[in-house]
From TrEMBL:
GO terms for molecular function: kinase activity. It is found in: Membrane. Keywords: Kinase, Membrane, Transferase, Transmembrane, Transmembrane helix. The chain crosses the membrane at residues 24-48, 68-86, 98-120, 161-179. PANTHER family: PLACENTAL PROTEIN 6, RHOMBOID-LIKE PROTEIN 19. GO terms for cellular component: Golgi apparatus; membrane. Residues 271-289, 301-310 have a biased composition (Basic and acidic residues). The keyword RNA-binding does not apply. This is Protein kinase domain-containing protein. Residues 256-310 are annotated as: Disordered. Its main location: membrane.
Length: 310
């Protein structure tokens, strides 16, 4: 009998994932199990706009509650695999902070949007639809991948990472025309992507320089769209620069990174480029390690020797 260990089974499958991602996956699975055992808990844990005022905690809990087996499977797999790339680069603390902030801000935006749509349409379905799921954070993760490895080709179709958030939203919006329940997930996807970009663009702290955000042109809001739309979008995006960049400038000045009106040689665009290079190297090293692990599992002595040399 062969003693080979399957690459996608048992501890070999879980060994490449971080402890934090495994713990968060347990939270997602546990939330789904709670709903199956005690279905009325959905009213307390999901975001139901008509009940958010007394149950304000659902602005936090809603993001970790999946309502179907498919949703919890997709969210768990997405968290494990994307987290395996982002967490080592950002650090566990920053990775967890990103999840919390994007989830909370997305819930607030969904709440405000649902209330506004109710007053416009007078449809009570906007007030009593239970909004929940980790998909908003997953959308934000795609923005993180766009930032770190924008030119890395991903998937079978070899799509560059910088287009992943835009294509994901485009496909989701197109699919919403054929799905009756689209109102329960589309706002979460849109706001998750947008909140993820705002946090990474203006607020994420860089441990190397202690500065905030990523002001590089490659990460501008208009770069989420085709080039012919950018002249129209740039003036709109400049509003957010005026709102958020001034705060970042004041914060950086108080930390001694500027001298009067003259910035010191430490620059965010340079650091952002270095971070993307680190992300690309981390991805290449991880793919090489996984390939070597896969070759070893075949049991072929020749392939094992090649893998060990790698």
């Amino acid at each position: 009998m062969s003693s080979r260990t399957p690459v996608f089974g048992g501890s070999s499958f879980l060994s490449g994932f971080t402890r934090l991602c495994k713990g968060l996956s347990v939270v997602l699975v546990g939330g789904y199990v709670v709903l199956q055992i005690f279905p009325p808990s959905l009213s307390f844990l999901a975001l139901i706009p008509a009940r958010t005022i007394p149950f304000a905690w659902n602005l936090i809990t809603a993001g970790y509650i999946e309502q179907s087996l498919i949703e919890v499977a997709v969210s768990t797999v997405g968290l494990l695999f994307i987290g395996k790339l982002l967490e080592p680069i950002w650090g566990s603390r920053e990775f967890l902070k990103f999840i919390f902030v994007v989830n909370f801000l997305t819930s607030i935006c969904v709440f405000v949007t649902a209330i506004a749509l109710y007053y416009v349409t007078r449809l009570e379905s906007f007030l009593y639809t239970p909004y929940s799921g980790f998909r908003g954070v997953l959308s934000g993760f795609l923005v993180g991948i766009k930032q770190i490895i924008p030119y890395q080709e991903l998937g079978v179709l070899k799509i560059k990472a910088k287009w992943m958030p835009s294509l994901f939203l485009l496909v989701s919006i197109a699919a919403s025309f054929f799905a009756a329940e689209s109102a329960s997930y589309l706002p979460t996807l849109i706001f998750g992507t947008y909140m993820g970009w705002i946090y990474l663009r203006y607020f994420q702290r860089k441990p190397e320089t202690n500065l905030r955000g990523d002001p590089s042109d490659e990460f501008a809001f208009s770069n989420f769209f085709p080039e012919f739309l950018r002249p129209v979008l740039d003036p709109i995006a400049s509003i957010f620069d005026l709102i958020f960049c001034q705060r970042s400038k004041i914060s950086n000045e108080t930390k001694g990174h500027t001298l009067g009106a003259t910035p010191l040689p430490i620059s965010d665009p340079i650091e952002a480029s270095r971070r993307r290079e680190r992300g690309a190297r981390a991805l290449e090293e991880r793919l090489a390690a996984e390939k070597a692990s896969s070759v070893r599992s075949t049991g072929d002595p020749l392939h094992r020797d090649v893998a060990e040399s790698v």
